[in-house]
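Quick start: read one record
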Amino acid sequence: MSGIDTDQLFKRKAFMLAQTYFIKDNQRELLLHAHKYDFDILFFDQMVDFLQACAVSSNDDLFVVDLDSLYSLQKDRDNKTMFLSELLRQLPQCHRYVYLQTSRQGGRFLLQRTLVECNCLAYAEKPISNESLVEKLFNLFTQRRAPDASLIVALGRGFPFNRDLLNTARIELLEYQDVDSFNQAVKQRKPDIAIISEVMFTKMPAVQQVIRLNMETDPSLEIILHQTKMDAGAATRAIEMGFDDLLIEQQDPNITTRQLTNRIAKIRINKDLINKDRATGLLNKIGFKRKAQDVIHLADQRDNLALGLCVIDIDKFKTINDTWGHYFGDIVIKRLSLLLGAFMGPNDLLSRFGGEEFVMLFWDIQRTPLIQKLNQMREAFHQLPFEVEPGDIRHFSFSGGVAFFPELKSESDLFLLADEKLYDAKQGGRNQICS
């Protein structure tokens, strides 16, 4: 992979429509915080200027509207009062918006409904500190990552699911007609949901229990009975035997599919709470270990396909915290997480193990190309400008260690060797990769 243009990657923009006095009182401090996160805020106090800027903006940008600025525009040229919903619909429909409102406005449910109906990405109540607002905007930037892919395995025939809707939601559906293949898929692929048709349940009522009692089965797996129409007797028996829920077939297959996508969305949220780092959105130690074991198992089945595990650590991070504070240290960590993510392939794993330590597992890559990629990442991070004070730009670095599969066969052995190599990189002068 060639080097990444860090200016293009990190110089995102937030377009803000607000009243003149708000801009005058807050612009300097907001910009100071935003530049630490390496994004810019463009301020507008006129609707026409804001609309023109939105028209030429990027899909990666954010758009912030202070409702107070719209209330001041509620008189048209003929001095007629315009409803807020009319003003909101003047905003380009191709974007979603972050709305700022007072706590009094936030207590009106009908207003919140209007915001939701008018392309609301998120809303927040004032007063909100400039530091907090910038951090929340940055979190919205990071949340735009595509969700993790999910898997549903189904036992039976003729499930009326819309494949296009599932694919759009990054959900893979695998259907099996025999219980042995279905059982193997549950063990090896670790799906999020297992669906069993009422026909297969009638033939083999114990199928759910066989899956559930296997020690290799993920205890969070949801097992659902699919019925073509509501059968109270079968439903009662299924629930008594440990099914988590029922899925009743609808006339419109899109409805049944939407029920599945909504359920997957909730499963993703619950898994994220367990498996992901709250500050960066990356896998945490628990989530990484679970996924790494599956990836290594899959590589082992494919004739020892090559993997590389890398442990990196920000150099002199304690000095960064002691000099500019933990708040600034968190900014360094978050921006590094974005940079690393830009280099990761769809089958690679990226995690924050804790503190300033990150662990990555790279899929199907040989030693030399991986070392080259890691050095590109290291150099790109070292080039990132951090504005610690107005006009005071600093640069930081990280060191890393690498280990390779199939030379080592387990996640724990790979990590221990990579961590040992990281120690060599630190002892050897930092800002380098050792293997």
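The CA atoms of residues 164 and 171 lie 10 Å apart.
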